[in-house]
Amino acid sequence: MIKIYFKDVGQGDSIVLEWEKDGSQKIGIIDCHINNGTNPTLDHLKRLNPIEIEFIILTHFHYDHFSGMADIFDHCIKSNIKIKYFYHSIAAFVLEIYNRVLTTQKVSKAIKEFFDKYEGVDDNITNDKIQISKHIQNIELNNTTSLKFLAPAGRVYEKMDKQIARKIARVKNTYSDVNKLACIMLIENAKQNVLLTSDAVKSNYKKLKLTTESVLVQAPHHGSWQNIIEPFWKGINKINDCPCVFSVGDEPKDKLPNEETVRMFDTFQFKIYSTNPTYGIDSFFKLNNPISPAGNKGSIINIFSKPRKNARVNSSQYSGEQIFSVL
User: Fold this and answer.
1) Cβ neighbours, 10 Å, residue 129
2) Residue 97 to residues 117, 157, 235: CA-CA distances in angstroms?
3) Mind listing the domains of the chain with CATH numbers?
4) pTM
């Protein structure tokens, strides 16, 4: 079994994977965001106190996915924790994009801290820092299960690099451009899969076909309707009440998730889970339940992809860290 923790970090992604291989406990980290000055992923790492991390994945270089990564690197350096692989989708032109948009002082500081620690963690990475592209096929978790990168493909880097080069003097980019590099990952065995989508854009789903049954999915881009292709989600082969997780928080600028995204997943018979009852989650909940979930903030739920008889649910599925045992 693989235990997957969707950390409550507001609007952003911080995912921790735990599993067993050859009698040893393993850990992997996907993205890391700071939430109100706390770093739940770092706290999780300190509790486990491993001597090695199988991998750290940075799905794309947006603040709500990398802001806590420098803390992880720093802890690994000070505690001499080895990192087998660091996978990322950072490209040479990403900072050029940041330089051509209105970057806040907070984001600029986080970028500097990230690269300072990124350089310092070299000695702790026992293999390589690898740019995710079509050349990276999969990471073996154990004898039956692997993590595969389905996006981005190498051509995306090449296309964006050419666009930046042609428009270097007058380019007007937004942060959404970096989402073209956002990863889609599939944790899969011979029969079933977990689909993790980070902030992947629509184009990455157009030719995507899953051959196994989904037991858990992540809503793309914190539930933004702009990232949804309905036929893809409607056509997924999945278990009954397949959990769909929204990693969201109170972000007035974006107001995610969009209610139409939540309704779509519900219509397609996914079961909705969320780290916070914000915006579309709250309005969806009020339509289906008489009492708002707002009072359940900070709670923890521990569920299974195939619910066991008499399984205990400790709190609301609409708030707090969400934990699943799958595959």
Assistant:
1) 16
2) 21, 13, 35
3) 2-326 (3.60.15.10)
4) 0.89
83 exposure class (CB count in 10 Å sphere: 0-12, 13-18, 19+): buried
Q: E-strand spans in the chain?
A: 2-6, 15-21, 24-30, 52-53, 55-58, 82-83, 86-88, 129-131, 138-140, 146-151, 184-188, 192-196, 213-218, 242-246, 270-274, 301-304, 322-326
Per residue of the chain (327 residues), what is the pLDDT tens digit? 999 999 999 999 999 999 999 999 999 999 999 999 999 999 999 999 999 999 999 999 999 999 999 999 999 999 999 999 999 988 877 877 777 766 789 999 999 999 999 999 999 999 888 888 756 668 999 999 999 999 987 778 777 777 766 665 555 544 447 888 899 999 999 999 999 999 999 999 988 999 999 999 999 999 999 999 999 999 999 999 999 999 999 999 999 999 999 999 999 999 999 999 999 999 888 876 644 444 443 333 344 333 333 333 334 788 899 999 999
Gyration radius of the chain's alpha carbons: 19
Q: Which position has the token pair 């739920």?
A: 301
Q: Between the CA atoms of 16, 310, 218 and 23, what dihedral angle is there, to the nearest 10 degrees?
A: 30
Residue 132 amino acid letter = I
In angstroms, the CA 194 to CA 213 distance is 9
